[in-house]
Amino acid sequence: MADTIDDEHLVKQFNRGDESAFDRIVERYSSDIAALANRLLGWSGEVEDVTQDIFLAAFLGLKKFRCECSLKTWLFTITVNKCRSYRYRRILHRRRISQAADKAFLISAGETDKTPMDSETFESVRRAIQALPAKYREPVVLRYLQELPTDQISRILGISKNALQVRLNRARAHLKEELAELTKE
Amino acid sequence: MTEDKMKNLLQEADRMAGLSIPVSVNLSAVVRRRAHRRRFVNLAAPLAAAALVLIAAGIWSLAIRTTETTQEKQKIALLEAQLKQLYVRTDAALNLIQDVLEKDQKQQSLDELEAQLASIPDPLEEIQKQVDKTAFILVYQADRLYRELNRTDSAVETYNRVIELFPKNRWAQVARQRLSEIEEQRKI
C-alpha cells in the first residue's frame, strides 16, 4: 500500500517535470522488469535492449498513466507487449550451448550440497516454454514464475478471468505433452 | 503431471537460468536521453517541414504574379526579405538539429566505448574462473561416474586428479569430501 502511494507520488512528481522521479522508478522496478522480460523471452539472458525499450515507452507514456492500476501492473503490461514484438525480431539461442554451460556452472558454484537440475532437463523445459505460443506462455510465466494473482494477470493481459483459466489449461496441456519424458516415474 | 509438479519444474528451471539479471547502471540516463532525442526530432521535423512549405508557397505566389505595380513591387520586396529571413531561420534550425544529432551520436559512441572498456574482464580473474570451472567440471563428471554409473574407481581417480591439479581450489575440498564419503561407504 505504502509502495502504491509512493508510486503515485513519483508519477505526480514526474508529471510536474521532475525527471529524477523517473530515476527512482527505474531503480525500483528495473530488476523486476528485466526478470519478467527474461522469462517471457525464454530465459535468453539478454534483455538489456528490451528493458531499455520498455522504460522508454514508460517514460513517453507516464503522463497518460492515470493510476487506475498499480505502476508495477502498468509496467508489466508494457513488458508483455514489448516482449511480444521483440520476440519476433531477435535471434534467440545465440551461443546457447556455452551460455547453458556457464549458467550450470554459476548455479552449481556455492551449492555443493544441492543437485541442480541438469542442463538437458533445463534445455527441455526452456524449449517447451519457447515453443508455447505467446498467448499461452505469458499466463504461464505470470502465474507460475512471477506468482501473480489471477486478477492482476487478467488485467495485465487485458483478458477476462475465464479466458485466463482457459489459456492456462491449454498451456498446461501443451507443457504436459512436451515434458512428458521428464516426468516419467 | 500435476499442476504442482509442473510449477516446481518451471521454477527449478527458472532458478537454474539465474534470478538476477544484470541491469545497466545508467539505464535511466540512457532512456531519458533516447526519449529527449525522440521528442526533439518529433518537434523539429514538423517545424522544418512547415518552413519548407512556407518557402514553397512564397516562391509559388511570386511566380504566378504577372502584373507588377509599384505597390506590388514593394510587397514582393517585403516578401523576399521575409523569405530570406525564413531561409536563414530554417538553415539555423537545420544546423541546430544536425548539431544535436551529431553531439548525441558522439555521446552514444563514447558511452558504447566506455561500456566496452568496462566490460573487458580482468585476465587474472578470468584465469581463476577458468580454473574454477575446470575443477567444477571434473568434480561434476566424477559425481556422475560415482552416482549414476557406479564406476567408483574412475570416480576416485578423477577426485584425486582434482586434488592434485587444484589443491587450493574449493572444488578440491569438495573432492576430498566425496573421497571420504566413498571411504566411509567402503567400510560399511
Quick recap of the structure?
The complex is a heterodimer of chains A (185) and B (188). Chain A has 185 residues and is mostly helical.
Q: Average pLDDT value of chain B?
A: 85
Number of helices of chain A: 9
Q: Could you say which structural class the secondary elements and strand pairing of chain B correspond to?
A: mainly alpha
Radius of gyration of chain B: 37 Å
Spell the H/E element sequence of chain B. Answer: HHHHHH
> Largest protein interface?
A-B, 47 and 35 residues
Low-pLDDT ranges of chain B: none
Tally of contiguous helical segments of chain B: 6
Q: Shape of chain A from CA axes?
A: globular
Rg of chain A to the nearest angstrom? 18 Å
Strand residues, percent of chain A: under 5%
* Percent helix range of chain A: over 70%
Oligomer: heterodimer
The percent of residues in helical segments of chain B reads over 70%
Which stretches of chain A of 5+ consecutive residues score pLDDT under 50?
91-98, 104-115
The gross shape of chain B turns out to be: rod-shaped
Termini Cα gap of chain B: 38 Å
> What is the arithmetic mean of pLDDT of chain A?
80
Distance between the termini of chain A: 45 Å
Tell me the β content of chain B: under 5%
Counted beta strands of chain A: 0
Topology:
The complex is a heterodimer of chains A (185) and B (188).
Chain A: H1 2-15, H2 20-40, H3 48-61, H4 71-89, H5 96-108, H6 119-131, H7 134-145, H8 150-157, H9 161-178
Chain B: H1 3-17, H2 27-64, H3 70-119, H4 123-147, H5 152-165, H6 170-187
Helix pairs in contact in B: 2-3, 4-5, 4-6, 5-6
